[in-house]
Structure formats: C-alpha cells, structure tokens
Amino acid sequence: MLAETFAVDIAAYAVLSNHLHIVVRTMPGRVQQWSDREVAARWLRVFPGHRAEAHDATPSNEVIDRLAADSNRIAVLRARLASLSWFMKSLKEPLAHIANAEDGVTGHFWEGRFRSPRVLDLAGLLGTMVYTDLNLIRAGLARTPEQSEYTSVRDRIHVRQRYFKLAGLRARAPRRAERLLRTDASDRSPAHPEDGIWLAPIESERGEGASAGAVDGLPGVLEMTLDEYLMVVDMTGRIVRGERAGAVPSELASILARLEVDVERWVTVMSGLPRVFGTVVGGAVSRAAEAARRGVRWVCDAMQIHCPA
C-alpha cells in the first residue's frame, strides 16, 4: 500500500525477525504529475487523521476536496510523498505500535534511525538486491529463494510461476484458462512473467506485446532479464550454502563480468554477515562523482563488490 501511495518503487525487500532490508527507488518527478486532489487522496490513505471515518481506508470525497483546496498544505504533502524519510516513517511507526501493543510496553521499538546507503550504479544495485534477497538463506532460515518467506525474490518467483502456469493452461485448455483469469484479481491475461507483481520489474527492456511495467508502467531496475536475475540469486545462494564447494559457475561469472563486478569480492560479500556499512554502493567512477556532488574528498563503498579501479 505504501509503495502504491508514495512516489517510490520497491526493487527488493527482506523481512526477518529483528530487522528488515528494503531497496527503494525514489521517483520525485512522479509527484509533479499528480493533481492536488490525488495528492490529498494519497495522503489521507496513509494518514487518515482523527476524522469520523478514520477506520475506513478510503476517505470521503468531501474530506479529499477540503484538503485539496489548501494549496499550501498540498505543497507540503507533495514533497512528503516523494520523501524517503516519510516513506520509512510511515512503514516503521505502525510496526512499532503493533509490536509494543503485543508486548504490552511503550517507548522506542526501533534501535535507531534507518541506515540508507545510496546505490550509484547497476552493479551496485544488483549486489544490493541479491544481498537483500539472500538474507534468509545466509541466516540459515531458508534453503532456497522460493522458500524465503517475506522476500522480494519469492514474490517474483511466484508471479513468474503463475505466468507460465497460465501460459501452459491456455495452450491445453483455453476456455478453462479464460474462466480462471476472470476470477483472478488481475482480471487480465499476463503478457510477461513480471505482470501482476507489486514490485518494480527487473527488466528495463520489455518484449513486444508486454506491458511497460508491472504496476502503472513502472520502469525496470536492471539491464537483464528476470530469469537472469533469478539465476544470479540462485547460484549465489548455492555458493553461500557451500553446495558448489567454492566454485563459481561460468554463467554467473559472465553476468558479473558484464557489470564489472569482482567475482571473489562478490562471493565474500554475499557470504558475510547481514550488515551493510558505508554511505554508498558503487564503483570508483560513481563514488568519485558522488563525492564531488557532496563536496567531500571520498565516500565509502558499503559492499566493496566492484573490480579494483
């Protein structure tokens, strides 16, 4: 709900018992396309306030119109709906209330403010997403990506499986497939293995006849196919679990080489503790540009997966 409401896309996530990881793409230009009324409706969906219908997720037209008429307030809310900090506040605060109520306590639930290294390039993004998707496997809580509950990779696998299952059903029994689609929430035949997922799609280039994105034409996040991404996750997960005796499959090595990722560093990072330090994730050129933007001499790479400069 938050991803659909804010001007953000979720590329990857993993929820564990005591922490969570989220790879977020902020889309500040998107809020400028929303009307004042849409800004008001989106804000009230997340923060209904103390109005009589606060229990209802859908605010009344009267409430929306009243808020939309306040141009100064709308300007503030438009900026907030594009803010990573407000997105995280909207995610963390309800979780804290729920957890404290369950435990019968008050006070701070989270240890501190969230850490947010900035991802600077595609290689860094791939590493961050795979690192996130493998959290449960690295922690010994799951054996395979499809068994990793509350992760983006499991969501992607399930949507892909649905697509191919329906494709096979259409070939064998087209009438039954159409009946199934009519009862499905999407109410349409998926044209691509990523259609119908709430996450940002993997593929930046979609095939002919496919929708531009899984949700409202969202752009893809990586210059690779969904199957290539799932292969990287699967093969890296096998290495992390020690099923390949330290060997790196040639298919994985070729994809990493294409993105100028150091294979040995990749394996070391993915096998390490589930903690990320530093302020950015990116190669030497990207880090130099970011340092110049910040007006500092250098910035620290949080993951160190790139090839040496």
Structural account:
This protein has 14 helices and 4 strands. Helix 3 crosses helix 4. It is mainly α and 309 residues long. It folds into 2 domains: 2-103, no CATH class; 127-254, no CATH class. The chain has a two-stranded antiparallel sheet. A two-stranded parallel sheet has the order 3-4. A hairpin with a 4-residue loop joins strand 1 (8-15) and strand 2 (20-26). 48% of the residues lie in helices and 6% in strands. The longest helix is centred in the middle third of the chain and has 21 residues, at 152-172.
Number of helices: 14
What's the count of strands?
A: 4
For the biggest sheet, the summary is: 2 strands, antiparallel
Mean pLDDT across the residues is 82
Strand-and-helix sequence, N→C?
HEEHHHHHEHHHHHHHEH
Widest β-sheet, arrangement of strands: 1-2
